[in-house]
Design a protein that fits this description.
With 282 residues, the protein is of the alpha+beta class. Helices cover 30% and strands 36% of the residues. The chain contains three helices and eleven strands; from the N terminus they run H-H-E-E-E-E-E-E-E-E-E-E-E-H. The strands form two sheets. It has a five-stranded mixed β-barrel. Strands 2, 3, 4, 7 and 8 form a five-stranded antiparallel beta sheet that branches.
Length: 282
């Protein structure tokens, strides 16, 4: 029994290999996700993309990736709280936090907040960097109208304002509800998030070429795919999106290698010590 290694050493070796295997699985999953992203055709917003859609061979892209700057098709939304802040998607959330009296513990317990959210959108398009300042540019300008952005996943809005007000009077937290209600208002918060004008957005979805009477011609539209694939809008450019996944995959790979190397070193040292003890006895 005295020849057995320290249980803590065995635990450390096992943990190192376990973490190495777990990190390697994360690495494989991230590499598979990256492979699927790179398989999606990606095009820049230029005349070449427009010519492909107007050609006889291609009438639509069932799934494609494009990126560009957000520009409203008309008047943008103005922030309710921040002057000279404009966007095309606006979400205003209000939360009311209440407390209920617990007669068993004689304390006030927090209650789930009442949440109300209001969404506003205006039609907008993605334009190439350095292109027109509005989506309704000249005939030579190329832009993609974004359909139903609230149906897309992955859209992370900018938090432009957060306000809160709490009602805590002196001694009220220790008071019992003898002359009060069993339910009392505690705090109210209000936040505003927007997709601002000029933000870089990458979209994955179906790209079609439709007639647009208002524009006096045909325009490209990005919409939810009909084949069930995800409709995604991301607040980043395509290159940064791919690089972020590559960095994440590289991180999991390095962690797997480091944990595996640590476990291997400790395992080799343990086996060497056991062999030395065995040779000393002989």
């Amino acid at each position: 029994m005295r020849d057995l290694p320290n249980p803590l050493v065995l635990f450390g070796i096992g943990s190192s290999f376990a973490f190495s295997g777990m990190f390697y699985n994360f690495y494989r999953a991230k590499k598979e996700e990256l492979r699927k992203i790179k398989e999606i055709p990606f095009y820049k917003l230029d005349q070449h993309l427009l010519k492909l859609l107007t050609s006889d061979t291609i009438k639509r892209f069932q799934y494609i990736g494009v990126d560009g700057l957000v520009q409203p098709d008309g008047e943008p939304l103005a922030s309710e709280f921040v002057p000279r802040s404009f966007g095309v998607v606006q979400k205003i959330s209000e939360e009311e936090h209440w407390e209920t009296w617990n007669s068993l513990t004689l304390t006030w317990d927090s209650q789930s907040p009442n949440r109300k959210e209001t969404d506003h959108t205006v039609p907008f398009s993605l334009v190439a960097p350095g292109g027109p300042t509005t989506a309704s540019g000249s005939d030579g300008d190329v832009y993609v109208k974004v359909q139903n952005p609230l149906e897309a996943t992955g859209l992370d809005l900018d938090l432009v304002n957060c306000q809160g007000s709490c009602v805590i009077e002196g001694g009220l937290s220790a008071a019992t509800p003898q002359d009060l209600s069993d339910l009392r208002f505690f705090c109210k918060s209000r936040t505003e998030a927007m997709l601002r004008v000029g933000t870089t957005v990458t979209g994955f979805g179906e790209l079609v070429l439709d007639a647009d009477p208002e524009a006096g011609g045909r325009v490209m539209r990005l919409q939810a795919p009909q084949d069930g694939r995800p409709y995604v809008l991301l607040r980043t450019d395509y290159k940064s999106y791919v690089e972020r996944h590559e960095t994440s995959a590289s991180m999991w790979k390095k962690l797997a290698v480091v944990c595996g190397a640590v476990g291997t070193v400790y395992l080799a040292e343990t086996l060497y010590d056991l062999l030395q003890k065995h040779n000393d006895k002989r």
